[in-house]
Amino acid sequence: MKRSVKRILTLNLLCLLLFSVLPISASANSAEPPALVIVVSNPPDDLKIEITNDSGRKEATFRRVAWEGYYISYHNFKTDGIYNLKVTADGKSFTCQTSQPLTHYCSVFTLNLSKQELTPGTAPLHSALMVAVRLVMTLIIEGALFWLFGYRTRRSWFVFLLVNITTQGLLSILLSSSGNSSPYVLYSLLLAEIPVFLSEMLIMPVFINEQSKPHTVLFAFIANTLSLIEGSFLIKILPI
Questions:
Q1: pLDDT, tens digit, for every residue of 181-224?
Q2: Phi first, then psi: what are they for 24, rounded to 5°?
Q3: Regarding beta strands 48-53 and 35-41, do their DSSP bridges make them parallel or antiparallel, or are they unpaired?
Q4: Torsion of CA 43, 68, 24, 30, to 10 degrees
Q5: In angstroms, what CA-CA distances link 22 with 16, 31, 134, 171?
Q6: pTM over the 0.70 mark
Q7: Which helix (H) or strand (E) holds 52?
Q8: Are 109 and 35 in contact, with CB atoms under 8 Å apart?
Q9: Could you tell me how many helices (H) and strands (E) the chain has, helices first?
Q10: Which of 135, 188, 180 is nearest to 40 (CA)?
């Protein structure tokens, strides 16, 4: 068993290398310029954010996904630096400032309304929670299919869990890093699913001997197709 685990981990490491070279987001396109994204949890209906710097002033556009609001302002990251924000809600307003120049194609900050604080990125627990939710839902769907395909032995389930936690976990982390503000996050999912499909269809038949290899390959293909459909649905209803 220890030797098998080492072989599985080695193959999973190769999958990780595939993920590392796979382009998940592009900084050159004709549809969407670089963006400053302000994430607000449960924003009030009248919340408005005006963003200013040396280039001028503009009101951020609003997009809501579940309990999170995304306030987006497009900018020229090659010349623009620190931004000042004027936040208005419930007849009151306050100002805050980005703590660093915008050097990323999609710069994400989190606004805490109660503390009136603006911090780079998203809260660590937020990302961990979303990764866990997507991973658990994927394991439930693929696990039910795994059972229907006739896999019952402890070894088969051990390999199934190890491979899926590795591949689907990496996929969820990559999606979290891309940001739900991007309209191209679905394309990121489609691209990232390619090494997932290939790795699971190659690894599982090697280490799962309970059924024939074609049977296991067919399972991996159908399971990942269902996961892709599920992921496309979750992107629309849950924060990334």
A1: 455 677 777 887 888 899 999 999 999 999 999 999 999 999 99
A2: -95, -35
A3: unpaired
A4: -40
A5: 10, 21, 21, 11
A6: no
A7: strand 48-53
A8: no
A9: 5, 9
A10: 180
Burial class (CB in 10 A: 0-12, 13-18, 19+), 127: middle
Contact 96, 83 (CB under 8 A): no
Integer distance in angstroms from the first to the last C-alpha of the chain?
36
Are residues 68 and 104 in contact, defined by beta-carbon separation less than 8 angstroms? no
At 57, list the tokens: 């002033």
β-pair partners for 137: none
Q: To 10 degrees, what angle do helices 124-148 and 213-237 make?
A: 140
Side-chain-side CA neighbours of residue 1 (13 Å): 5
Contact between residue 140 and residue 160 where contact means Cβ atoms under 8 Å apart? no
Residue 167 CA to residue 83 CA, distance in Å, equals 38
| Sequence-ordered strand ranges (E) for 98-214 | 106-112, 117-120
Token representation of residue 130: 């979303």
